[in-house]
């Protein structure tokens, strides 16, 4: 697969998402100087696959056949799933087959290996994704088109979750094909469903706390894309995007990476502050989103240099240990731990 055909957005670099005053930058750098740590060379963007990974999709797929997998579970359900996979090759039957396979994600445990190792199936998925690109700019995605591609994305989420296919999924760089969907801003239901389901695939990758997945994502544009959605997206997409950033922060490499430079730190902290201000001013009771935000703040406070800066930049509303808008007991405990880490009474 030639790298020139992989569409990756480059216009939402983390280092250019916020404008930092010289005083703020000096404040961060002073805190950074107090903790000596080896510099990391990763960047949010500029991810370039190695030549060994730029093979054709057909050579990346195993030669193991559907028949080999069907022996694992000799029943009518397996036969039905196999038939749906075979129907993907028929353009007239593909949409229905995609829908039916998507419904089997939770009830059929061998679906991910079957999909990955069946000849041509991943190529069909990528073809379905590529067809949608032309409808992104200008925004012309219909509800029917959105529903169809969301079935594909649901199956990709299955591949991202399964222990036997996750590494192959990453090595094939399939998440990169979803980034144009995350780079959209149209607020129609068709586009929101597309963003949420695409975020669901990335969320499936980080859900298992797999270092390989975290390291892969840190070399791509996923963090600035998530921050953009967190700041301007709708309720569900904001929540999933915040969850992804939270899982990256919970990884030691992810935390060190985000706290390495003032640009990265302020890109994250300013978006978190905006979200807290929105929730507080609107009096919206979104405990699930609040849970992810507080956990992000707590994790940032566990980094020495970020914690020192966070004392100054923590939203005023969170400096009160008796905040009534935090209702979940676990989140209240996280909030208290955050204040303790920052020595705020």
Automatic annotation (TrEMBL):
Superkingdom of the source species: Eukaryota
Listed Low complexity bias regions: 30-43
Residue ranges, annotated region (Disordered): 30-54
GO cellular component term of the entry, any: CCR4-NOT complex
InterPro entries linked: CNOT9 (IPR007216)
Coiled coil location: none
GO biological process, one term: mRNA catabolic process
The protein's name in its UniProt record: Cell differentiation protein rcd1
Lineage: Eukaryota, Sar, Alveolata, Ciliophora, Intramacronucleata
């Amino acid at each position: 697969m030639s790298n020139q055909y992989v569409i990756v957005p480059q216009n939402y670099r983390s280092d250019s998402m916020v404008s930092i005053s010289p005083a703020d930058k000096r404040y961060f750098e002073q805190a950074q100087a107090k903790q000596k740590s080896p510099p990391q060379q990763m960047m949010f963007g500029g991810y370039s696959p190695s030549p060994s990974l730029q093979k054709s999709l057909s050579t990346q797929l195993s030669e193991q056949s559907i028949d080999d997998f069907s022996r694992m579970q000799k029943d009518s359900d397996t036969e039905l799933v196999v038939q749906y996979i075979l129907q993907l090759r028929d353009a007239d039957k593909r949409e229905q087959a995609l829908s039916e396979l998507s419904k089997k994600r939770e009830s059929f445990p061998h679906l991910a290996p079957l999909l990955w190792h069946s000849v041509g199936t991943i190529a069909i998925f990528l073809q379905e994704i590529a067809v949608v690109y032309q409808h992104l700019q200008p925004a012309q995605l219909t509800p029917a088109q959105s529903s169809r591609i969301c079935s594909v994305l649901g199956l990709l989420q299955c591949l991202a979750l399964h222990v036997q296919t996750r590494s192959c999924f990453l090595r094939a760089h399939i998440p990169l094909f979803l980034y144009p969907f995350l780079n959209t801003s149209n607020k129609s239901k068709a586009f929101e469903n597309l963003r949420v389901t695409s975020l669901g695939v990335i969320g499936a990758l980080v859900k298992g706390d797999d270092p390989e997945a975290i390291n892969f994502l840190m070399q791509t544009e996923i963090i600035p894309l998530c921050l953009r959605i967190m700041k301007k997206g709708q309720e569900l997409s904001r929540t999933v995007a915040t969850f992804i950033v939270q899982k990256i922060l919970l990884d030691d490499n992810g935390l060190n990476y985000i706290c390495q430079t003032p640009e990265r730190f302020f890109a994250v902290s300013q978006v978190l502050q905006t979200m807290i201000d929105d929730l507080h001013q609107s009096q919206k009771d979104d405990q699930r989103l609040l849970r992810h935000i507080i956990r992000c703040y707590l994790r940032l406070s566990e980094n020495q240099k970020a914690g020192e800066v966070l004392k100054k930049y923590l939203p005023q509303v969170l400096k009160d240990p008796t905040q009534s808008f935090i209702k979940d007991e676990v989140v209240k405990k996280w909030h208290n731990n955050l204040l303790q880490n920052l020595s705020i009474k």
